[in-house]
Specification:
heterodimer, A: Rna Polymerase Sigma Factor, Chain: A, Arc Repressor Mutant, subunit A, 8 helices, B: mainly alpha, Serine Threonine Protein Phosphatase 5, Tetratricopeptide repeat
Chain lengths: 199, 215
């Protein structure tokens, strides 16, 4: 897997906003259209947003589009930020909303790739153990594709991201009880799907 | 038959590992900042409204010239009779020509000083719009690349040539066609388009050249 250190990221270097700026000052700078603040927000949270988007879409290209959408929308969206949650939670909430726009395209692309047997085109480093793990992950990804998006969001946030149902409720913009119900149904459906595939 | 919990947990762990990797952050970062910069710059907005404004000005000017011409035609008596032409004869106008004086309406050719600045044609704006939608709205790099190529083939020196060439380079980066992307970005870094996207191109080039190579 490729890993990019933050030093490799290109673009405007944060200048006007201190690199350890807290949420309120960063929010103010973002709302004012400060490019340095946007660059800092990107550097601080792009991986978090990307990973969540990948888990909700199982498609790296679509996830990258979500990252771009989220941070492009951030300067305008941040004007709605009231400080009820932290800025990271607010960003993840935007990501969950943006994922809806990319889900259909991501599904189409994934299925096309599967048809071409290109899912594993990067190839595992370790032949056996790694292949088995990748297959497990790929099966869960395929099973997740079968879930309605709200259930997938609940599952990914609670089971994969290991957030509490309270945090998940804020990000998904849904009542906590609803998140728990969705999580219950998602788990049950996934177990059935994976059992059907003889995991 | 239900799976064992450990199998399910293993699948979740594997999925977690599989989706934890990140890449292509540089290109996305550059695009995000470029979009924000476009939005923040005072001349960014006029650029977006330049085409509709030009069209509106053109329509108003044409209507004004046409109105003036019609007013002159209404006031003035006929100056020159229409010559009999096959077209006129075919529509029976020669018979009416004897009853009513006819006029020759001079073609409306605005004076050189009044001519609107050359802008993109509708077809060019359409071609650019298609590429723009594929690139920014649909975020479909393959489709966007094909559309930018189409635009540049049809309008190699079009109004939006620099934008099209830069966006094409971004599409190449997104598609990980780095050799072509490098060539495309180099012209911006060399200043072929002045300062336009020069710094971003240099930064992207640096990233493309130093990018870690995976398996």
């Amino acid at each position: 897997m490729k890993q990019h250190s933050s030093a490799r990221f290109v673009g405007t270097a944060p200048t006007d906003v201190a690199s350890d700026a807290d949420d309120p000052s960063l929010v103010a700078a973002l709302a004012a259209g400060d490019l340095a603040a946007l660059a800092m927000a990107f550097d601080r949270w792009h991986q978090r947003v990307r990973v969540l988007a990948r888990r909700l879409l199982s498609d790296p290209a679509a996830a990258e589009d979500v990252v771009q959408d989220v941070f492009t929308a951030l300067p305008r969206a941040v004007r709605r930020f009231r400080g009820d949650a932290d800025l990271e939670t607010f960003l993840l909430g935007i990501a969950v909303k943006r994922v809806r726009h990319h889900r259909r395209a991501a599904l189409r692309r994934r299925r096309a790739l599967e048809r071409l047997r290109a899912v594993d085109r990067h190839g595992p480093v370790d032949p056996e153990q790694d292949t088995y793990r990748r297959q497990l992950g790929a099966r869960l990804a395929a099973a997740l594709d079968e879930l309605p998006l709200p259930q997938r969001v609940a599952f990914v946030l609670c089971e994969v991201e290991e957030l509490t149902s309270v945090q998940a409720a804020v990000i998904a913009d849904a009542p906590e009880a609803t998140i728990r119900t969705r999580l219950f149904h998602a788990r049950r459906r996934l177990r059935d799907l994976l059992a059907g595939e003889r995991l | 038959m239900r799976r064992q919990p450990e199998s399910f947990a293993a699948a979740v762990r594997a999925f977690k590992e599989m989706t934890a990797a990140t890449d292509d952050a540089a290109a996305t970062r550059a695009r995000v900042l470029a979009a924000a910069d476009r939005g923040a710059r005072p001349h960014g907005t006029p650029r977006r409204i330049a085409v509709p404004t030009a069209i509106a000005v053109l329509v108003i000017c044409s209507a004004s010239v046409a109105g003036t011409t019609l007013a002159q035609r209404w006031r003035r008596p006929a100056a020159v009779a229409i010559e009999e032409t096959p077209f006129v004869a075919a529509f029976g106008w020669s018979a009416r020509a004897g009853r009513r004086p006819s006029v020759v309406i001079p073609p409306v050719v605005p004076a050189l000083d009044d001519a609107p600045a050359p802008g993109p044609s509708d077809a060019e704006a359409d071609a650019y719009g298609r590429a723009h939608r594929a690139h920014f709205d649909a975020s479909a790099p393959e489709r966007a690349l094909a559309a930018w190529d189409d635009y540049l083939r049809l309008y190699p020196q079009g109004t939006f040539e620099p934008e099209a060439r830069f966006n094409r380079a971004i599409s190449l980066v997104r598609l990980r066609r780095f050799v072509q992307a490098e060539r495309a970005l180099q012209s911006f870094a060399d200043g072929r388009f002045g300062g336009y996207r020069r710094a971003e191109a240099e930064q992207l080039l640096a990233w493309v050249r130093d990018r870690p190579t995976g398996p």
